[in-house]
Amino acid sequence: MTITVTVIPGDGIGPDIVDSTVRILNQAGCGFRYEYADAGLTALEKHGELLPHSTLEAIKRNPVTLKGPLTTPVGEGFTSVNVSLRQQFKLYANVRPVISFKGTQARYDNVDILTVRENTEGMYSGIGQTVSDDGLEAEAVSRITRAGAERIVRFAYDLARREGRKKVTAVHKANILKSTSGLFLQVAREIAEQYPEIESNEMIVDAACMRLVMHPQEFDVIVTTNLFGDIISDLCAGLVGGLGMAPGANIGKDCAIFEAVHGSAPDIAGKNLANPSSVILASVQMLEYLGRHQEAQRIVDALAKVIAEGEHTTRDLGGTHGTTEFTEAVIAELG
């Protein structure tokens, strides 16, 4: 059966790097159909809203979505499109892998870390956000539920088991945030006992950040709450060459969205300068999610070879070439 993928090209550099990825998926023989939809600033300009009903329907209709970076106008009262999508479709698990690729000029050459971030609770839930009339005080509420904590921690352990990973580290701040982070840690300890074959570790978030910078090889799978996961996953991207090499998956019970995690970079939009690797690697996550492991590995191997050789890489990878040349090189490797 042919699978239809919802494709949201996004804003800024999004259309270019998403087009590169679709071309690579086609060259790899994936045989997808594509249904295109708008979101973000592009949708606002075309349809008068950041997240049109037709886009939501397309996401519901198809099993997976591939998404470029989106722009939410700042300071105009708009809710983040990415947060809205996660809440709308109950995409509770955000999975951010980082892996070292030879040729990226990163500080480390042997990093392979999966950050599993709870995606719908905590500080990003939007509960109780108020600013006093005089503008002198602001408040927000962080809410963690046992059900939410159990769901994300179990997801992380199941993922570790499925991928043959050896260790899961629960990252928290229970020494200070004794209620919310304390509940998360308590649940993580309970779930860990059900996976005796996997080494379980726990670490306070500030210590975890320090250890990631100094000794990232100590980490395998990290599971944590929303705000900490957002920060840690970007830190991990910095270990392997930056956000241009970092994909993300947002996974729920009946829906999954795969995306570039960097911004829309409007300053280089349309200039043939962007590195498409983040969306390419997001498509690899999508293929793995669909059980298409052979095509996923072919794309990773082709991407790795192009980056390692360095003859057709973009500026952020130390090269002098553009999006088009980089894409054509990956396509050539796929044969």
From TrEMBL:
Enzyme Commission designation: 1.1.1.41
Residues in Isopropylmalate dehydrogenase-like domain copies: 4-330
SMART domains in UniProt: Iso_dh (SM01329)
Record has Transmembrane as a keyword: no
A Pfam family matched in the record: Iso_dh
Enzyme class: oxidoreductase
Gene Ontology terms describing biological process: isocitrate metabolic process; tricarboxylic acid cycle
Any one Gene Ontology molecular-function term assigned to this protein's record: magnesium ion binding
Domain of life per record: Bacteria
Record's keyword terms, sorted: Oxidoreductase
UniProt similarity note: Belongs to the isocitrate and isopropylmalate dehydrogenases family.
Cross-referenced PANTHER family: DECARBOXYLATING DEHYDROGENASES-ISOCITRATE, ISOPROPYLMALATE, TARTRATE (PTHR11835), ISOCITRATE DEHYDROGENASE [NAD] SUBUNIT ALPHA, MITOCHONDRIAL (PTHR11835:SF34)
The protein's name: Isocitrate dehydrogenase
Organism: Idiomarina tyrosinivorans
